[in-house]
Amino acid sequence: MNAPEQIPFALETRGAFGREDFWVSDCNRAAVAWLDRYPDWPAPAFVITGPPASGKTHLCTVWRQKSGAAEMESVEAMQERQEGPLPAVIDDAMRFIGDSEKEEHLFHLYNFLQGQGAHMLLTAAKPVAEWPFVLPDLKSRLMAAPAAALGSPDDALMAIVLAKLFSDRQVFVPQGVIGFIVPRIERSFAAMRRVVDETDRRALSQKRPVTVPLMKEIL
After folding, report:
1. Residues in a beta bridge with 108
2. List of domains in the chain
3. Which residues make beta-bridge pairs with 120?
4. Contact partners, residue 21, CB within 8 Å, separation at least 6
5. Which of 133, 181, 134 is closest to 161 using CA atoms?
6. pLDDT digits 0-9 by tens, 16-59
7. 136: cis peptide before it, omega within 30°?
8. Crossing angle of the two packed helices 100-116 and 136-143, in degrees rounded to 10
9. 58: closest CA among 87, 35, 77, 83?
10. Whole-model pTM?
11. What distance in Å separates the CA atoms of residue 37 and residue 31, rounded to the nearest whole number?
């Protein structure tokens, strides 16, 4: 008779978001170089693009810590932004695009920061050229901004990220198991998160260590 599975609690996991926790590889080297170059940017804005879970939010956090930037989560935050030349971070900037009122606030924020000699960092899943702009003036300014795209991770980076994701959950995984996972999953950060989530859940509910046999069942 099989032992009953333990029902795992849905505990929050908190990832590490320091600069030392972000591993540089060919897929993100250009974006990291631009952040390291700050404040020597040729324009008020810099845009990072990439698929979900590719590291955009992590880089926003790194840059916010370096620059002292304020995070712009809403139109209201942009309206209240007129207190000084602090930089601004707008993660998932496309949520403000396609609506004339929201774009107007973003346009005014851009001009305000430019006038103060400050900067903004924006991220999005798609390149700026694919954003459904309403305001031509905002489009022209962001189209002229430097940008860097985050690409698919290589094997070395996948191994590091998997180890970090497991570590963030305080789950010990031998290097050999990491090596077993890497060539067998989709080459994306989202896929790695899904595998880690399921592995953590299965290992906890079945009270099993993370081994190659367990990963064979999951994959």
Report:
1. none
2. 28-149 (3.40.50.300), 155-218 (1.10.8)
3. 45, 88
4. 15, 58, 164
5. 181
6. 444 445 678 888 889 999 999 999 999 999 999 998 878 898 89
7. no
8. 50
9. 35
10. 0.74
11. 10
